[in-house]
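User: Fold this, then the next.

Assistant: Folding the first:
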Amino acid sequence: MKKVKVELENCYGIKKLKHEFSFEPKRTYSIYSPNGVMKTSFAKTFKDLSMNVESKDMVFTENKSKRSIKDETGKELKAENIFVIEPYNETYKSERVSTLLVNSKLRNEFEKININIDEKKSDLLDSLKPLSGIRSGIEEIISNVFTKLDNAFFKAIVRIKDEVLDKNLPVYEGVVYKNIFSDKTEQFLSSKDTREKIQEYINKYDELIEHSKYLKKGIFNHTNAATIAKNLKDNGFFQASHSVNLISGKERKEIKTEKELQEVIEKEKQDILTNPELVSIFDDLDKKIIKNQDLRDFREYLLQNIGIVPELSNLEAFKEKLWISYLKLKKDLFVDLLEEYEKGKKELEEIIEQAKNERTQWSTVIDIFNSRFSVPFKLSIGNQDQVILSALAPVVKFDFIDKNKSKTINEKELLTILSTGEKRALYLLNIIFEVEARKTANIETLFVLDDIADSFDYKNKYAIIEYLKDISEYDHFYQIILSHNYDFFRTVSSRLDMQRANKLNTDKSEVGITIFEEKYQNNPFTHWKTKLDTDDSMLVASIPFVRNLSEFTGDDATFKKLTSLLHYKVDTDSITIKELENILKAVLKDKQAIVLPDNTKKIVDKIFFVADTILADNSETLELENKVCLAIAIRLKAEIFMVKKINDNAFWNSITINQSNALLEKYIGLFPSEFEKINLLKKVNLMTPENIHINSFMYEPILDMSNHHLKTLYSEVKAL
């Protein structure tokens, strides 16, 4: 990605924009753009491309949008190669977090073992589908039946291992789980009346079993007998000329064929199940079922399988019997799974233990965050072994620190405690995860950052800049850093060692957006000093700077004199260019030889001349010096108007601080009905307060002012 050519039309308020970014030799751009010019629209358009969605104009939806973002070969940038970082997005979570590994060998080994286990598990579960009638969720059902947990399948099968592998035959081979168990049937069977009737049935059934010729309560009922008969048949018992002896007291009956055995069992079964008293009890139970329309299918199945009624008194035990029966029928697959699981279990435990001790890039991210960002909590990874081995997202633990105490709380609770700036810092954690994941995957990425440092305190702003510098040093990463904060723009440009061509400003006109090289790479006054005698706008713009220098050096007389050029005072109209020349020589030690032209003329006339010239110029872009000149002229014009209108010299001369405000308050008190003029004067105070004075942010505030607004305001004040 050597170059990125951007052409946009009607994209979220950007009427037109065309610019080429060259990432050779430096791979980072910083763009200063006041609010409302293009920042968010620019970033949103890039985000659309990263998400493979069309861009549009949100207001004038009928306008056709055009978006062309291509590399030096003319190919459109791929979605995965763009990552837009918004000022703040509370819901954002990196999708690449689980890829941050140091030792991928562990993951591969872990996955290989689990794949083998999963294959055996799938074979077993698939075989249980026709037996149970359940098409999906068998794993969870078995887990819940034997452990009361939804995700403990292997714990369940290990628990019932001995029961499945014993020599007992499957008891309920032909009973279908799905036909018995549902929310409706379980609710019905659990009711008091139903349980009482089932118990009555069981009592009578047990009584009949006790009087049976061959069947025995709890040992050999008709269900057991039928199962044994089937297994003897399936295994060719009678075909091998074997026989079975049925004993009742002193009577012995030899059974030589499967048909004889089936007939005996069926007779015993019918003698019991057709007993008039037992049938009567079942009929009472059946009447209860008939009343419930939702149980119609269950009733039909029960009529065909009356022998299972005794099991309905303990549903949980019956569930276990059914699944154990099914597993017995698929014993070979059950054994295959157990062997594969037990073989791999030890290896898995060793891998997990090793994973716990692995240092991953998650640890790197956590270290970056904990060491650089100032927040009232510390981070740690709570599930490192699971994350490494199961491709899960890490669970970040938040240890909230208060003096000598600490408490681990979840992210939701944390968000209710933190300030806006601290929440934004937490958001950055996910950004760092994404960046480091892309670094690990060696993904060529263009990062578009939209006011990433907004609402941060200075300590955390510098932490962000430090991390942006880290990004800038990675060969496959490129950055376009957008900001409306000039101080941040200037600082990040310096800290990332950007070249002049990579530090850009923006301008918005009726035609569209223009991106151009920033003129003042350092302190503008350094440049202005060289042009004081040749450029009137730079001379005027230097006045507030020189004024503050005199203030800082304790030169009260000079400070007061220059104040009269920023506020309308008694001597404002009389100060000459020659007086300003003398001041420059006195304050600026490297300007002893300076000679200003037209030195007999008045400075205030020069200020208004420069402002009028700027106003008449149709240039779309106003340089900083021109903005400062306009701001000075606007305030002077406004104060001159108010002083003359108020016409109270004693009041005027008594003002020592905040003159513009004092005059405005007086004006409003004297002329409350002049709404339009009052509103205009308020606008002056709003747009030209201390911005034309040097301050800790230098000239940032006035840079944010629109060219159009400044020109319009000057025209309106001039017309007063």
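Now the next one, as you asked:
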Amino acid sequence: MTPSQSTLLAVIIGGSAIALAFATWLSRWVLSRGTGTDAMRVISGAIQEGAEAYLARQNKTIGVLALVVAALLFTGYGILRGSHPGDPVSEPMVLATFVTLSFFLGALCSGIAGYMGMWVSIRTNIRVASAAMQSLNDALQVALRGGAVSGLFTVAMSLLGVGGLFAIISLLQPADVEASTWATRIPFLIVGFGFGASFVALFAQLGGGIYTKAADVGADLVGKVEAGIPEDDPRNPAVIADLVGDNVGDCAGRGADLFESTAAENIGAMILGVTLYSYFGVSGILFPLVVGALGLVASIVGVMVVKTAEDADPMKALNRGYYVTAALVTAAFWFACKWMLATPQAPNAWFNYFLCAVIGIVTSIAFVFITQYYTEYRYRPVKSIADASRTGPATNIIMGISVGMESTILPVITIGIALLASFILGRDAGLVNAEGAPIGGLFGTAVATMGMLGTAGYILAMDVFGPITDNAGGIVEMSQQPEHIRDKTDRLDAVGNTTKALTKGYAIGSAALAAFLLFSAYLDEVRNYTGTELRVDMSKPQVFIAALLGGMLVFWFSSLAIKAVSVAAQSVITEVRRQFKERPGIMKGTEKPDYAACVDIVTKGALRAMVVPGALVVGFPIIVGVAFKAIGAEGERLGAEAVGGFLMVATIVGILMAGFLNNAGGAWDNAKKYIETGVHGGKKSEPHKAAVVGDTVGDPFKDTAGPSLHVLIKLLSTITLVMAPLFI
């Protein structure tokens, strides 16, 4: 006997509430810590002011765009389309209301999650700097727990949003619809939640990425390269904008990114769970939310076990917390599978799906090690870039591109093995349809994706740890604290650079598994509407053309994102040069730079540049689906098939491009840091200058275009899920 719907919802909402309560306690613990010297507080205050001003303006822009999309959704579903026999509710206006409201709630919750992540991070940085005056362990724990507030809050809000919507809509069951039938329809009514979350995440990640890299490139090229002053030097007019960028890009943007990851992927898995209702009942539908709630509890334990000695490697402490989290998540899946997926019709099914979850967990660990290999300077790829820097920037860039391309090999093999193994285990679970054909394979891949997302709370904590420690180092440097304090923050900053790279690897791995899950959910939704399987035939010229357009979109989007960084950075460079020229007292230390001018320039540039590529991603698949539907014959389903081809190729190209951009950028960055340790002449040597050029090229790769592609992959999938009825 599977557990009741009310029991499962209680677990989901209860687990989310525990995580939110613990995040609240952590935030109070962090905020109770010391805030250092007056000089530290002045710098931290400037970072807070800049970050909050940017996010307020960004959210206003995104809010206007979201209202436009919500209006279009309501019009398309409620007025233009009409009713369809496959609709989860018969009245078009009712369907339009459900889809539009879920979109709005997804967008709202995603924005709140991103804001909370940034709000805590910009108040944690100074407390890490202050804690570094006491011990390395104190600073480590403050930074990680500050990051954990974002991680726990983000994942909990996602689960609470989806689970809460499911619970509310359950209470709205029509009198003429049976409870079992209504439960299978609810996932199709809340797909808009994932779309809303992905919509906000794309703009937040893209805008934040443009901001942070424009400020970083501008500050480095004029400050470090031209003026010859250190990084985070208070004389650099762009230094505050650079520190602000760490928060709006890596904290707010990444928070929204992981929020939409969990939301979209959980809804996709719920749709696939509908096909197994005859075996698992509502347990198969709510399974992803339950294991997500249990994963939050595991992340709490993982965060709390992290501690380090003064002379130890902080990265080992963070890895220990991750392994504890992964072990507890594995145990949680064992319990959940046996509790929710045990059925006498297929006695081995629960164990097969548990093995699928283990595959997902192992895949996440594999991605961490693969990313570490290609981005840490202990290993061959980064060392090869550093060696190439001895002959100038050209060979540095050539080698970096080569390393980035090479870095796609192992992830693709890993993803392929994970998908195939989990599909086979699901297929062989003993679940069959009326004709005796196995039907559990796709749900196996969904469970593998859940396994990878089980540690999402801890992973996001590690990710936000990076910008927090980066900001802490900047505050220590700008407030001219003693060298031994800077040494501690430098050690944490180096670890933070590693964690940011590792979490990007995790993000692209989870995006790849999720993309297949969501693509399968799209095919399943079309089958639900039409009664027959959708076959995407690439030999049809129309489908092939749509597929080409999907691949082209990835390149076009990446181009716009990278170009936006260049344009905004040029404005920053011009402003910094102007201040150095017109106010010579800045370099002498007798005159304070105008930090606000650079913050304002980058803010305007980022917000202006994010609109076109974001709108392109949202509008393109809709145009493809509607256009090919119009030219197709009656009953041909050409629109749905063309969108399937478009989505398939865009996903594949997007995964490869994101991997290339993330790893190439990370490798360039750490090649520079490797030289700064003293090899090949160290700082200010010719190889170091070449490495700085490579690092500058890699900045928009790894922090703007690459992370934005994680969101693009899933946004395309959620758009097609929401818009599928319009393409049929």
